[in-house]
Structures are given as structure tokens and as C-alpha cells.
Automatic annotation (TrEMBL):
PROSITE patterns named among the record's database cross-references: DNA_MISMATCH_REPAIR_1
Gene for this chain: mutL
Top-level division of the source organism's lineage: Bacteria
An example Gene Ontology molecular-function term: endonuclease activity
Tagged with keyword Cell division: no
Lineage summary: Bacteria, Pseudomonadati, Pseudomonadota, Betaproteobacteria, Burkholderiales
Swiss-Prot/TrEMBL keywords: DNA damage, DNA repair, Endonuclease, Hydrolase, Nuclease
Positions with biased composition (Low complexity): 373-392
Name the record gives this protein: DNA mismatch repair protein MutL
Keyword Hydrolase among UniProt keywords: yes
Amino acid sequence: MTKAARRPATYNPRVNSSSSAHPLPDSGPSAAAPVPRRPIRELPDELISQIAAGEVVERPASVVRELVDNALDAGAHQITLRLLAGGVRLISVEDDGSGIPREELTSALKRHATSKISNLAELEAVHTMGFRGEALAAIHSIADVSLLSREAGGEDGHAWMLHGRTGELSPAARTHGTTVEVRELFYATPARRKFLKTDATELAHCLEAVRRHALARPEVGFAVWHEGKLIEQWRACHQDDPQAALAQRLGDLLGQEFLAQSLALDWQGQGIRVWGRTGLPDAARARADRQFAYVNGRFVRDKVISHAARSAYEDVLHGQRQPSYALFIEIDPTRVDVNVHPTKIEVRFRDGREVHQAVRHAIENALAKPRSAAGTEAAGPADPAAQGAASGLGAMAEAGPQPAMPRVQLGLGIQQPPAANPNPNWHPAWSRPEPVGHQVKDLSLLWQAGHARESAAATLDGQAGAATAFEPGQPAERQQPAAQLHAARPSIDPSLTAAQPLQSSAVPTSGADAVEPPHSGHWPLGRAIAQLHGIYILAENAQGLVLVDMHAAHERIVYEKLKQQFEASPDAGLQSQPLLIPATFAATPQEIATAEGCAEQLRQLGLEISPFSPQTLALRAVPAALAQGDGVELARSVLAELAQHEASTVVQRARNELLATMACHGAVRASRRLTLEEMNGLLRQMETTERSDQCNHGRPTWRQLKLSELDALFLRGR
């Protein structure tokens, strides 16, 4: 039985369907009946405004954003927002700005009427939040709008009220400034009102719109009332330092936790400045809900900025975590087009690569410095020996000829210096740079500074024996023998016991020959005391206990050294391996153009791609390290990146991925027994290695347990 036979006899889609229903399409020939042609004519002004409102006003939050923009352009120092039913019944924005003169009030609600621009040159160099003049007219076409304003310093002793529906102008009372009331949103377009969410959801969107403005203008106070109750208030920050004002506003908006887990940044290039705060990799979130980017004070969502920020976090974020940041980009208004989106939330840069580089460099510079190094600066200057230890570049220096001394072979095959030297002319030089010509695979570079300090510690502790050293200001129960703090017997398994005194009869007793090691309190990551299960290094510093993942830490150190080697010769490129038989694949015109235009960048990546036919590319060489992979897929991904982003960024990312793989395989493995000298050398290198707080995969390399946290674990002082 056919579908037509199963239908009721009385069914007729053209008869039974009302004008609001959707009749089923008829498959017969009569369904293709031509539609009568309509003449081209101008639309009425009211319909034009309602079409514009559909682009500008999506929900109550869109109205809030436009009205707050106008208030900020008027020079307001305090903005009060009052809402009813999440903004659907009432949106009232009150400011203390310059106000609107009486004779200009009636023009404020007209289409494309504005005081912000007057010619094309001003449109191309917009520096105000609003500029097109269509917002109030669009809102007026779908809601009941009224304006109450008093000009600052005007001759009138009162304000003026403009009723949008009637156009009536009447005197009213208020101080200087403007109040815009929008009632019954979408009353003229009830179909649009059905798409609104609950009052709580619309209120949340309105709050987010105000929060974005408040973050960019710390000098302006904001208050939000809903149903007659004050729900949010952010007071104006009266501070001359922009960073301090921003920190205060960020603390009010996002909480003090965001401040504690973020870094200040301020980078300035030619014609562009990037400043603000960027979150630590440890504070990354599962959602991108704390990413605020502003261009000349305007909140934007731009792919160039977001990609640049994400690329700066590439090798310090774990998995798909999202960074947090508040970035403020200051650029010449003529170099950015803000008139590319009805809601002004998107912009277009004249030179997107320049902005991409600026944002990436600003964040990378802020993240590069190890957080452990900040502790050294905060603690104040240390003695020269401690400063050399913190530099992590110490080496053994010889002022004169040394006699042959027996050397001890330790866990990683590293030649260690003797515990003491009878030559009175020899002393360790803590700040001597590394010798030129060593390769990263020479792991002894990682431990040289540690060897020198452990030798000095053994010299001192040989004199002290079991003597006890007390630190001023510390409780007696926390005092430890100096020998236990500064020395260890190389033959003792450090994973089983802490450092023990090292007795040596060969140690000289004269004060001239004894070298005083720097106190471990000057070292941010402290002094190693043990190894746990061959995986973690335990160290003590001035704050308490430090836990270090030795593989992750060593992986980052090797990785950064490899990157430095490549940066020293950026034109060398990656080693490539020619294919015996070129791999051909179908390509789009854009891919073919990219392969021809970026041949040099592809060569640096170890790729050789050339046109084979008008619609085909041939892959003739791939990176040697990836010879066993899918070369065609690699070529496609690289071409896509080159077409969308800066070529140098793609080259650097590809290099870093290969170097990260090499560093992971070259780092010390778990369950490898290290001596205390090797552990301390690793800690000193961590303190001076960029991004040493995370490994190449974004995992943390160390954690700090403060004494107060340890005391709480054991209920001390309770």
C-alpha cells in the first residue's frame, strides 16, 4: 500500500493546513509552480530598524553592552545598571558622564545619528566604544525607550526627559549625566521574545557583559541591581599604576586566587603594546571561560589573539587544558578595523602576524622565568657563593696546577671532583660559564655546580664532625646538625636515608682551606636530602619541603638546551630524508600556492614538496626523525598551518615538537639512583632554566610543601 492510499480521504495538505502550519511538499509536477515576481522597492524605516535590531540585539545583554559603551564614551566614573526579569522587563543604565544637550536628545533615537564620527577618516581611526549610531535606534524599534539627561555645566537648571514612543520632551530632575531606560524588550517582535531563556540565564549574560567592561576600566565604578537588590558592585580603583589598578579589579572580579596564580606582563614593540596578566600553567582550566582580550579597551574574540596565546602555552600546558589571561593590546586605531561585526566583538588587524608575534612574545617572556627564581629575588641578595649556585652555570676553576687526585665514579657515569684539595691556591669559582663545545648529551654539565658545592660541604663538615649549627629565629626542635644539612657519603643509597655526616681525616683544618658553602636558604629549591623510589627528589629549603619529579625536570632542561642550539643556527633547518619514491596526493589550489610560496620554510622543516600537476603535489623528502610516520598527513597539516598562520611560527612549533621527543628519550629515567651531588646539580639547573616549572608535556616538575602545611598534618601547635 502506498503512502497516498494510507492517507484519510478527507486529507488535503493545501486545504487542511493553516497559514501558520508547514504543509508537506507535494511531489507532483504542480509543486514547482513559479512564484509571482515582486518589484524592487525600498523598505520602510521601521522595518529597516527592526532588521538592524536583529543584528545588534540578540538578548538583553546586547542592550546592556551598547548602553554601557555609550556611558563610557561620555566619560562616566560611576555606572549603575538596574534590571527586572533578567533585563526583559527593564534595563536602566545610569551614568554621571557629560550628558546630552536638550536640542540633541530628539536626534539620539534616529538611525545612524552619532557624535562619534563625521567622515571616513574618523571611521578608520575609531577610538571610542560606540561609533555607528544605530544601537539606540535599533533598540527603540523593538522596545519602549526613554532618555533622561542633563548636560554637565549646561545652562538649564534641570534635566530633560524624552519619551521614545511619543517623542515628548519634558523637564525632569537629576544630576549631570544620562539615564537610558529600556522597557519590555521585544514587545514589537513577540516571536523574538520566545527565543529568550530563563530570567536567571539572561541575568547571567548581563552580568558577564558588565564584567567585561569593568575589567577594562578599573577607574570606573560599577553597580548592578536586580529586582531592587544589589547583586554586584565594583568600586573604582584610584591608583596611578595601571598594573596595580588592574590587579585590584581582577581581585574583585575573578578573586584573589587568580592573582596568586597569574603573572604580570608588559611587552612593547614598534607601534604595539601588550600588557596585563597571564595565568600560570598550573592554573589552566578545562574551559576557556577566563580568557579576556581587549584591543584599545574593547573586548574582542579574535582568532589571531587566541591562537597566539595558545601557542605561547604550547609546551607548558598538559593535554587540552585552557590558559587564563587578561590581555590588553594597545595599537594605532588606523591599524585595526572594528567595523567588521554588528556587535563589534570581532576586529580585523591590518597586520595580523605582527599582533600574533607581539601577543606570543609577551606571554612567553612572562612564562619563561622559573617561579623558583622569583623566590631568590624576593629573599634579597645572597653571598657570592649563593649567587653562583643559583646561576646554575658554575664550573670548577683552577687557579694553578693541581696534583692528580683520585676521582669517584657515581651513578650516572659522571666524574666527580674530590672531597677536598690540599692545594691552597685552588678554590671553586661559582660563576664561571660553561665551557664552549659541550653537547647536551654530556650530562656532567648538569651536575658541575652541585659537585663543587658538595665538595665544599664535605670540607666544612669534616671539620665540624657532629657539631650542631643553630639558625637564628628557628625553634630549637627544628635545629639540625650542620653536617646533616650539607654533606652526604657518596656510597650511601640516597633513596633510603637522608644526608649523613661525612668524616674524613684527609680534610685540612686550616680556615684558609675550608670553603664555606652557601646556606641552602639562598637556593629557592633548597638542598637535596633524599630520593624516593627512584622517581622523586626530596629537598629542603627555607619554606619547607620541595618534591621534584626528576625525569620531568631533566626533560625540560635538556629540551631548553636543544632549543638554544637550534636558535644559535636558525637557518640550518631539520635534517631531511629523501623518499625513494615520491608520495603524490591531491591538493587544493590554496595548498599548491602555499607549497610554492613557502618552499624555504618547508625546507627548514625537512620537507620537500613540489607541484606534480595542476591538482597534485609530490612529497619528495620528510624529516629524518619522522621518516616512519605518515608523510602525506604531515605535509597536509603543515601546509594548512602555513596558510593560516605565520610561517616562522609553524617552523618553530614543528622543531619544538621534534626536540621535545628527543629530550623525552634523552632525560634520566625513573628508578635511576642519583647521588646527592647529582640531585643538587639538577636543582641548580632547574632554578635557571626557562619554563622549568613544567615539563615538555605540561606536567609540573616540582611542588612546595610549606612548614605550616607540614605542621598542620601532624597537628603541631594545637
